[in-house]
Amino acid sequence: MYIYWILLGLAIATEITGTLSM
């Protein structure tokens, strides 16, 4: 079920990137 963690990591990375972009 590591695919779930990969998707979760991508979601978190996207939020962090979006926060830094603001």
TrEMBL record:
Protein name: Uncharacterized protein
Organism: human gut metagenome
